[in-house]
Write a structure and sequence with these properties.
This protein has helices at about 5-20, 20-40, 50-75, 80-85, 90-125, 130-155, 160-185, 190-195, 200-205, 215-240. By secondary structure, it is mainly alpha-helical.
């Protein structure tokens, strides 16, 4: 029996909605941003619309990455994956189906973020909210979610336990970038400084809600995404049924 990509995607997206994980994830993204917007509108802080965007991405990107990984963790934990691993075609379909789920989640978080920013801007939050910023925000969210999702998927393929996978992704998205930012601030070597600035593990979490990336960073990001997808697909194909 061949795994149907369409049926798998539709069924699991409905499950995300029914079990409340999608709503909780979006709330985790929106609530900090709404609180920030409230303080800005009440003149309690001199921050701008980019701070609202950053607070949206603070927990939002973590939940956006973990949501699609929920299904992979579920299938590995319940051993359902053994039914999928019975043929190379099913393993390929499983990769593509979960990739589509991750893409759908990234698009949902992008649209929700844009709506939130437009509403807060309309309410009077200061700062520029032009087309280039919104376009950069959209591409940044897509690249970040897909890249970290594939990295998490790869960890599962290599037998890393779910708790460790979630811990690693949390550290990479919330703590590791701050450590690199501190190192970057203390570095006086131009080459090392450029290496940090153009490392996806640094510029994605730091820049996702702030500014469009540079052409070089987008090139590195796209190449990283392609390499991760190919590695995940090839590793999946080689798994014994």
């Amino acid at each position: 029996m061949t795994l149907s990509i369409n049926k798998y995607v539709v069924y699991n997206l409905k499950e995300l909605l029914k079990n409340g994980y999608l709503v909780v994830g979006l709330l985790g993204a929106c609530v900090p941003a709404i609180i920030m917007a409230y303080f800005i509108l009440n003149k309690s802080t001199p921050f701008t619309i980019k701070h609202v965007s950053n607070f949206y991405c603070m927990l939002g990107m973590l939940t956006a990455v973990l949501l699609p990984l929920y299904f992979i963790n579920r299938d590995y934990s319940t051993k359902t994956i053994s039914l999928i691993n019975n043929s190379v075609q099913n393993r390929r379909n499983y990769v593509f189906a979960n990739g589509i789920i991750a893409l759908s989640v990234s698009l949902l978080y992008t649209m929700t973020g844009i709506v939130l920013l437009l509403v807060t801007k309309t309410l009077g939050v200061s700062g520029d909210l032009n087309l280039s910023f919104l376009a950069g925000f959209s591409v940044n969210v897509f690249l970040l979610v897909m890249t970290y999702f594939l990295f998490g998927y790869l960890l599962f393929l290599y037998g890393v336990r779910s708790g460790a996978v979630y811990g690693i992704l949390t550290a990479l998205l919330l703590f590791f970038p701050n450590a690199l930012a501190n190192i970057h601030g203390m570095v006086h070597n131009e080459l090392l400084s450029e290496l940090i600035e153009n490392f996806p593990g640094y510029f994605y979490p730091i820049m996702v809600g702030s500014n469009p990336l540079s052409p070089l960073q987008y090139s590195i990001g796209c190449l990283t995404l392609i390499v991760l997808f190919v590695v995940v697909l090839k590793k999946s194909e080689k798994i014994e049924g």
